[in-house]
Specification:
The longest helix is centred in the N-terminal third of the chain and has 17 residues, at about 30-45. The termini are far apart. This protein folds into two domains: about 5-310, Rossmann fold, CATH 3.40.50; about 375-485, GMP Synthetase, Chain A, domain 3. The chain has helices at about 5, 30-45, 65-75, 90-105, 150-165, 180-195, 205-210, 210-220, 230-240, 265-275, 380-390, 425-435, 460-465, and strands spanning about 15-20, 25-30, 55-60, 80, 110, 130-135, 145-150, 170-175, 200, 225-230, 255-260, 285-290, 295-300, 310, 315-320, 320-325, 325-330, 335-340, 345-355, 360-365, 370-375, 375-380, 400-405, 410-415, 440-445, 485. The chain has a five-stranded mixed β-sheet with strand order 10-11-12-13-16. It has a four-stranded mixed β-sheet with strand order 2-1-9-8, with helices on both faces. About 30% of the residues lie in helices and about 30% in strands.
């Protein structure tokens, strides 16, 4: 029996998952969830899912997702989680994404927002499928990409995460990450379930509306583990006032894993400053690096050590820790290459640029999101970081696009703010970093910058839209590096 299902044999009636509801928290013990999993497995068999089949699970962060995810495994099938429509916002883009996933998966059944009714628990006796999980991501390019994960790889990554964080049944995790995403699924759902520890689970929209509710999980309810992209830290700092944290105690908060996008020193420092008066340790923030092709986690900062930084071309690069147990990391011609127990294909060239220093991995940016100017590689993430610092903004509201128009390198800076608030500072930073390039700034309405589910800008998709003239606000005259353009 795989550890991913062994919890079903003797589930705890005291520990489990608290799902956020408008009224409060809906507690499902692992004993109750185990009954739901067996009911969902029986429902899948009745619906005609064959042994070795595939089930696309399109459910929100709730009990049904847990039931049908593990129920698929119990029924001898492979689950393939897909984002529900509300998480995309853009209906046409969602339809394209879903069509790509379904074409690649060819599922035997789609479980979508309550379309399959669940009956009484029933015994299902089937061998495990060859694959534990079909994990999909559209990435920064917008193209659907599938990762086939065998049980051995998924189990190895969960073991590595649990060892890294010293997870034990007495711990509690809190998360708002979507469970269809690798960080939310593997790190914040499967790891707590396999270790038998409590979980407080919100939806991303709950977190966006009320980040203080999320913080109460740590300051009042005793949760001590979490993970999120850096934009989550920025959102908390932007929305939560220190006075609203009075009476909270963050001293038990052991780990805030920060990954999924480039981690900035500013995001870490601002969040640490917010939490410090209430007991949050500076060393609780743990920058990390991972990707779906390696199941999830590859490197992470060891507990209780404090993050490190190095200067590079006028910006500060944050170290993402050392390889987790069973992981291997090398850098070949500037590209991060990962391998190990959690990488089903043996070795993956990640497409990310980085370097190793004193045993730690430092991530610079995407190789496809860079240009060469006078022989030097310029990364979009470097410009994002510089502009965010100069404008006092978070990187969640801007994106830099790099490309060639005619024979000239062009830098296009997008920000979801009126141009008057940031145009001059952004142009100054971009001109310094991208000397001898044409600079253009574009002001967009809130939410207009297309992003992946982990918050990364879809730069290639945005560049195509820019070239097609589809970035909406009226365009002002373009200028050369000695001046600037905006729209």
């Amino acid at each position: 029996m795989t550890p991913l299902l062994s919890w079903l044999d003797n589930p705890s009636p005291q520990r489990g998952i608290r799902f956020a509801t408008p009224e409060g928290w809906d507690f499902w013990s692992y004993e109750r969830l185990a009954e739901l999993v067996r009911s969902c497995a029986a429902a899948l068999v009745r619906a005609g899912v064959p042994a070795g089949g595939r089930v696309t699970v399109i459910e929100e962060n709730g009990p049904r997702f847990v039931g049908f995810f593990f129920g698929s495994m119990l029924a001898g099938a492979t689950p393939s989680p897909v984002a529900p429509r509300p998480s995309f916002g853009d209906r046409e883009r969602y339809d394209d994404h879903l069509a790509g996933v379904l074409s690649a998966t060819r599922p035997d059944l789609i479980v979508d927002n309550g379309n399959l009714q669940v009956g009484a628990p029933a015994s299902v006796d089937r061998p495990l499928a060859d694959l534990a999980l079909l994990q999909f991501t559209s990435g920064t390019s917008g193209r659907v990409k599938g990762v086939r994960l065998p049980f051995a790889a998924l189990e190895a990554n969960i073991r590595a995460i649990a060892a890294w964080l010293e997870m034990k049944p007495e711990d509690a995790t809190a998360s708002w990450l979507p469970v269809h995403h690798d960080m939310g699924l593997v790190g914040c759902l499967l790891a707590p379930i396999v270790t038998g520890s409590d979980l407080w689970l919100m939806s991303p929209s709950d977190f966006v509306r009320n980040p203080l509710r999320y913080l109460r999980c740590f300051g009042e309810q005793g949760a001590c583990l979490t993970a999120m992209p850096a934009f989550g830290l920025d959102h908390i700092v932007r929305r939560v006032r220190p006075a609203s944290l009075d009476g909270m105690d963050f001293s038990r908060w052991r780990a805030v894993i920060v990954g999924a996008e480039r981690v900035t020193n500013g995001s870490l420092e601002r969040f640490a400053t917010l939490g410090a008066p209430f007991g949050l340790s500076h060393n609780a923030l743990l920058p990390a690096y991972g990707l779906a092709e390696a199941t999830l986690a590859v490197t992470g900062l060891p507990l209780r050590t404090g993050w490190q930084t190095v200067p590079r071309d006028g910006t500060t690069i944050v170290g993402c820790g050392t390889p987790l147990p069973g992981a291997k990391v090398t850098v070949v011609d500037g590209e991060i290459v990962v391998g190990g127990d959690s990488v089903p294909d043996g070795e993956v060239r990640t497409g990310d640029a980085g370097f190793l220093h004193n045993g730690q991995l430092y991530v610079i940016g995407r190789l496809g999101d860079s240009v060469k100017i006078r022989g030097r590689s310029l990364f979009a993430e470097d410009i994002d970081a510089g502009i965010a610092a100069a404008c006092g903004e978070t990187q969640g509201r801007l994106a830099t696009l790099l490309g060639t128009v005619g024979e000239r390198t062009r830098v296009v800076v997008l920000m979801e703010r009126p141009a008057s608030a940031w145009h001059s500072a952004a142009h100054s930073v971009a001109t310094v970093l991208a000397e001898d390039a044409d600079i253009e700034t574009i002001a967009l309405p809130s939410g207009a910058i297309a992003r992946t589910s982990s918050g990364k800008p879809r730069r290639r998709e945005l560049w195509r839209a820019y070239l097609a003239g589809e970035l909406s606000p009226s365009r002002m005259p373009e200028r050369t590096p000695s001046a600037s353009g905006t729209r």
